[in-house]
Amino acid sequence: MVRVGPILLLILLSACSTTGSPGPSDGGSPETQEPRDLRVERVASGAPGEGPREPRVVLAPSAEALSGELGAQIRGSGEGTYLVVYAGQRPTGGYSVGVARAGVEGDRVTVRVSLEDPPSDAIVTQSLTYPYEISVLRGLSAEGKSFPFVGGDGRELGWPVRRAGE
Question: What residue ranges do the domains of the chain occupy?
Fold first, then answer.
């Protein structure tokens, strides 16, 4: 009876082993990866008196690459994909743009952008402004991924996306 115990134990252990498809942690392809939310951190934002007339986005693999693309010093805050979202020219102050959230599913990174108008009764600066936000998407490499940007209603904004160095 002593020999049956180890054999039974081996049978039970072999039945518990997994033989399923590989997941993201064991080399699975991006198509098999589950959707996940990304951590978004704001690096800087504002509405200066000059900037691009039309909305657009610039992506970069690092703060240094984004700095080189923009010709301005961008404060690095660790690894991830850096992006700057420009809302384009606005007629007065009080407008803002921001990255509300981001999620990745396979090779598609959907970024939700919040666009805020000033309240109708607000006293605002009477000059053209160009709202922007610089953010970093933690734990994400932009290589080989598409980046649709959507508004609060979930519809794609159709803004041009430029990758630093391209």
Answer: 35-163
